[in-house]
Description:
Blueprint: E1 8-11, H1 17-30, E2 36-47, E3 59-74, E4 78-83, E5 91-94, H2 107-122, E6 129-136, H3 146-161, H4 168-178, H5 189-196, E7 202-206, E8 211-215, E9 221-227, H6 238-257, H7 268-275, H8 279-289, E10 295-296, H9 297-304, H10 308-315, E11 325-326, H11 328-351, H12 356-373, H13 380-391, E12 396-400, E13 407-413, H14 417-429, H15 439-442, E14 443-446, E15 453-457
Parallel strand pairs: 1-15, 4-6
Antiparallel strand pairs: 2-3, 2-15, 3-6, 4-5, 7-8, 9-13, 9-14, 10-11, 12-13
Amino acid sequence: MAADAPGTLPVQLVEQPRLQKLKEMFISKFGSAPKFYVRAPGRVNLIGEHIDYCGYAVLPMAIEQDILIAVEPVKTQVVQLANTNSLYLDFSTSVNNIQINKTKPQWHNYFLCGLKGIQEHFGLNNPTGMNCLLDGTIPPSSGLSSSSALVCCAGLVTLRANGKTLSKVDLAEICTKSERYIGTEGGGMDQSISFLAEEGTAKLIEFSPLRATDVRLPSGAAFVIANSCVEMNKAATSHYNIRVMECRLATKLLSKSKGLDWKKTLRLQDVQTKLGVSLEEMLTIVEEVLHPEPYSTEEICKCLGISLEELRSQILSQNTQDVSTFKLYQRAKHVYSEAARVLEFKKICNEAPANAIQLLGELMNQSYISCREMYECSCPELDRLVDICLQFGAIGSRLTGAGWGGCTVSMVPTDKLNAFLKNVKKAYYQTDVQRLPLENNSLFATKPGRGALVFVEA
């Protein structure tokens, strides 16, 4: 068994109504029973937004909502995918010819990312076919990582079906890389927490090398997720990939100004590491080197001493070729200040002072202001929702996930929780006919859940 591989749990289906129902649906769909089930959870990021792809640590926890797949390996080399939600159409393909369409982020393409990642890692020449039925409880495009949970789930399904084993860390790294097949340049937080999460604790996730440290959240406060009901699909939007590029360009300009080898410096954290300075000192350097006005491509070329052709072919990604201006000062300022807030959040959780909840709430609020003002990844509905949450008793509230829609996460004193839920429902969901039918799945308190698992019938 690979060191620290995802667990396999024997279960009595009678005690698991959701698995039992999935099994019955599987039999009616495919005419035979599943051999095993795989679950991968969504996540909520408590603090540390848009900094994982810059190399910095983040602080998420897994949630109860998940992707669950019933699986039967088959002799034919065909993967048949079906979904319990009839909005998502069936799909089948040969396992030897995986085509992932970047232009259409349909649900099955995320499954294919995980499948292809495992196939390529092991160089599987003769991968096994599978019948799979998927059931998801994570609201799609909500910033709770439904797409990455699906990639992770598919990776673990493929691993198990082909009789292979890997550690959780290896699986997380493979699934992070393989999600790029669909055009998402993520930093690895979502896949890491989906595999490395443990019940009862949030995690500080650090990268290069990937590792996870327990962070005990204060008792006396609940974390509440509220969905703005504005959908944001990462892979289908250029916003996210432009931010990734703005951070890369800021990295290049900061490196060059400090005499570093800017061509080999890729992430904002690399600049800090090479200079051997603190995050506070990096913020001073940003003030000295970068200007708040947007940079044109011409100015970037001039600063780096390269041609527009070199910028396009060597630095800009495929989906940022036509962008003409980039905000570098604001993005770098957000990243370095947010990285410092993550470390401060962990420190407060560890030291547990009497006013811990107040201090953590302030950090969450600062994070939100930076996301809104410096990273510009909020939207009017998220702004309204954060205001409502703070008005009705949240000590801290911020957007979570990429932003531009999706969810907020709020820290609420346990004794105010019921009143908070009631008031937020009334103020945000019951005032809008579109949100009204969504209110039950859109607002909930959550506890840190466990990571990806395989279930077999006992």
